[in-house]
Design goal:
The complex is a heterodimer of chains A (about 350) and B (about 325).
Chain A lengths: L3 H4 L5 H30 L7 H9 L5 H35 L11 H16 L8 H20 L6 H25 L2 H12 L7 H20 L1 H7 L3 H6 L4 H23 L5 H13 L3 H25 L8 H19 L6
Helix pairs in contact in A: 2-4, 2-14, 3-4, 4-9, 4-12, 4-13, 4-14, 5-6, 5-7, 5-8, 5-12, 6-7, 6-12, 7-8, 9-12, 13-14, 13-15, 14-15
Chain B lengths: L4 H24 L7 H9 L6 H35 L11 H15 L5 H22 L9 H25 L4 H9 L7 H4 L3 H13 L1 H9 L1 H6 L4 H23 L5 H13 L3 H26 L7 H19 L3
Helix pairs in contact in B: 1-3, 1-14, 2-3, 3-12, 3-13, 3-14, 4-5, 4-6, 4-7, 4-12, 5-6, 5-12, 9-12, 13-14, 14-15
Classes of the chains: A mainly alpha (about 350), B mainly alpha (about 325).
Amino acid sequence: MTHSASLRQPGDGPLDAHRTRDLGIATLLGLLLLASMGLSLGLGSFPTSFGEVGQALATPEDSDIAFIVWELRLPRIVLAVLVGAALAMAGAILQGIVRNPLASPDVIGITSGAALAAVAFLALFGTGLSIHWLPASALLGALLAAMLVFLLAWKRGISPSRMVLVGIGLSAAMGAMTTLLIVISDDAAAMVAYVWLTGSLYAAQWQDVLGLLPWLLVAVPLCLTQARHMDAMALGDQVAQGLGVNVLRSRLLLMACSVALAGAAVAFAGGLSFVGLIAPHIAARLVGRGFARLVPAAALVGALIVLYADLLGRVAFLPKDLPAGIFVSGVGAPFFVYLLHRTRYQNH
Amino acid sequence: MLNHGVSRGAGLLLGLVLVAAAFVASVMLGTTQIAPATFAQALVHYDPARVAHIIIRTERLPRAVIAALVGASLAIAGALMQTMTRNPLASPGILGINAGAMFFVVIAVSLLPLHTPADYVWAALLGALVAACLVVVLSRGRQGELSPLRVVLAGVAITAMFVSFSQGLLIIDRQSFESVLYWLAGSVSGRELSLVVPLLPLYGGALLLCALLVRHANALLLGDDMVKGLGMRAGTIKLLLGLAVILLAGSSVALAGMIGFVGLIVPHMARGIFGVDHRWLLPACALLGASLLLLADVASRFLMPPQDVPVGVMTALVGTPFFIYLARRKQA
């Protein structure tokens, strides 16, 4: 992989061609996503024809099908799209910050912090306290974990590789505590915690969508304002400083965006691993490495991955409703192995 | 650091005393305290009518033996891996070897009719082999050297892959919940002594390999070229040492599930005391590793009584600060 995309200057001939091509690809991905959402809306445990679904969408009145479409399927599909997009963008940002294509929110401990907090919540309060507080505690866990990683990796500044290693160590400790909590809680609570850890969109509601949306609305514009700085930092800290970028400030801002996106997504959908890792790679192959194009493309790819994983979980093994996380790892893990193999000559 | 042969010998002797003390503590301490006299009696004049004797024979003694065996093996495996990869963070836990073995054992236990460690140890060895091959192939750089951060990232991702596959299996087949949890958490309790015996030849084979290759391992530290001076290719040595790692780690996972950080911490401690010479380092790792896991297991009984905390949780909690210290110290 080269950084040629970020090196291109305005006025170069091929730039406009590239921009048109990238726009075309993004439009195609967007259309594909819309079509997939429509497909997903028509499929489910209750048989519905696409005509019925369309009618129910147009006239949200009191019928069974309208209820299924509006209250069961649509929130779940929208949440899947938002979660996938958020995780993919968090991964793209993180890989940019640490300049390593193998980093992801799950590797550096953000996901395990959220998981620990969520499982602690389930173990302590069980079903006693309202389950609506679960996302809040997961988000808090993600933020605390990220802060801890930053603090422990601080040594006259932040070195990306040190941050990755510290994150790996911390996520091992948090994973151990999560296991401990599962072992000591009763079987029913343990199973709930386990499904949550795998990542599931089961019983998603509009409330969840509304809970996740603000994080995206704040974090996405914020990280796009840093796109130029990110492209400069891709060439190395010294080059970026030479170009007038405040490296530490940019890195902190971008890191905050990544944590907010990953934490919020994990809070509402559980520990979906591998999305943040693989979606940015697929996107980079489609549109190149410029950060401002990579982020939206990664978001679309991530949304597609989670949407189809959830669709498979919903309809492929009826009457069972399997967690989307199983399918994400099933596809993501082999892809990741391929990725490792393909990038084996990079000296990171 | 102990530089002199005599002081090193004394150090090893001290290590042996430590293992013995930890072993006795592991048998005696717990929710039921056992007097030293009762322990001795249970060994010499076993009386099946006495509850204390039954506890010693069926629970405490196997548990202590397994803890010592697994601790020693993981520590030796970690030391060998750190030598082979020249990476201070290498260990069977971090690089995904344990997770690979664990996943294959979970498949064997939940999908195939294999129920004792002697049956599914082969699955564990196969899993360890697969994971080891993945790590080596995937982390190879341009000149064939393994870049430290890359090796660690590859290992972590491979661990994540095997763990999430196991979780998926668990959710599809809820019957195997207990067993999967056992492997994931890592535990030395609830095993009979007779189950350990069939695995001893595997441990023996691995130790024999280590003993034969100890000088070659020293040469590896100085560089691949030095190994040629001893009349063997570096690749062959690494292959054989890798085989030892797989035997040690695979058998340990078959007995006790995923126990992390022993293989990471102990070699560093042993190197700090005995230096880098494998003739001293490997025995020291065995003794310190056995003591560490025995003591961690004793501590796990008192963390949250009457609950038995899985010993893998204890080692992770103890090991993380050390891992972070290593990560901060390294100029990466």
